[in-house]
Amino acid sequence: MARNLYCWRCRTDVPMLDEAEWAQVSALLAVSIARLQEYRLVHAASLPEAMRHVVVGREALAKYREFTGYDEANVNALQHHRASLYGPPCAACGKPLRTPRAKLCAACGAVKEPA
Known about the structure:
Helices cover 37% and strands 9% of the residues. By secondary structure, it is mainly alpha-helical. The mean pLDDT is 93.
């Protein structure tokens, strides 16, 4: 089930996908990219030209909306709206550490206490 976490790239709290949800969204992204690649191959098109004819990520964005209720417009943002990419919350400020292995909070500078 999606949960809200602070996203460092978006600079706001957004719904993050769990691994089961991410598996479904990433599969739809892969299909979308395959369609784009196929269009380029069949039509000998450049990437910008192909992107004018093939909508990339529409199904993935719709699945993300279905899981979260959040209407994300940027398909590229889905790549980092995955909870497992982030670390535990900072003991000082509560924002998630940028990665599971981070030892320093980028938001407030607090050092993660050893486990």
